[in-house]
Amino acid sequence: MTDAAPTRVRDAKKDEVRARITDALIELLAEGVADLNHDVIAERASVGRRTVYRYFPDREALMQSAWDRVTGLAGPEVTFPRSEAEMLNSLEPIYTGFDRIAPLATLVRSTPQGRAVRRSQNVRRVASYTAAAAEAVKALAPEDQKLATAVLQVLHTTPWLEMRDHWGLGGQDIAKAMGWAMRTLLKDLKERDGRPLDQD
Question: 72 lies in a domain?
């Protein structure tokens, strides 16, 4: 039992340092710093370069940390879907979550640095949406399966910034519109019986 208190203190200190490094990374992203590397982040976080490497050994780990922070702030349901039902049911939490963190969500969607954070998730994103859409696209040819899945993924999260900026819409309305679009597309996919996407 006597070892538990020092262990808790050490763990809390590690969490604090990790959070400080991630905070520095998010600040630098928000400022548009082009060359985000361990040295720049260490300086901003007021920790040693080796400390940053200890917590985040490579750029991918840094980008994952930024991704986790952004999605965590947006809300617990801002995750990659595992099923068609999750795609549809998570629309409102995702789009209203983006509203809650609008400056940060805008940065992630519209700057080269933010896009790097998003691209760092491509493997996970493609695998997740491929699984979530599998039932709906199963009758299509492989190339059309990919196209239909990509459209579903775009509708699930991507229109937020455009619809907010160009139409003045909030997350709840965007979720309503995207829900309609996705349900319409899913209905068509299930009824087309493998017909190619370039045929009505």
Answer: no
pLDDT tens sequence across 16-54: 999 999 999 999 988 888 788 999 999 999 999 999 999
82/128 Cα distance (integer angstroms):
6
Q: Does residue 53 form part of some domain? A: yes
**Burial (Cβ within 10 Å: 0-12, 13-18, ≥19) of residue 193:** exposed
Domain hosting 20: range is 1-57
Its pTM stands at: 0.86
Q: How confident is the model at residue 174 (pLDDT cuts 50, 70, 90)?
A: very high
Residue 65 placed within a domain: no
Tell how many helices (H) and how many strands (E) occur in the chain.
12, 0
Cβ atoms of 139 and 193 closer than 8 Å: yes
Instruction: Check whether residue 190 and residue 121 sit in a common domain.
Output: yes
What is the chain's percent helix, strand, coil content, to nearest 5? 75, 0, 25
Nearest to 65 by CA among 13, 117, 103, 108: 117
Per-residue pLDDT of 86-116, as tens digits, reads 999 999 999 999 999 999 999 999 988 899 9
Structure tokens at 182: 């996705």
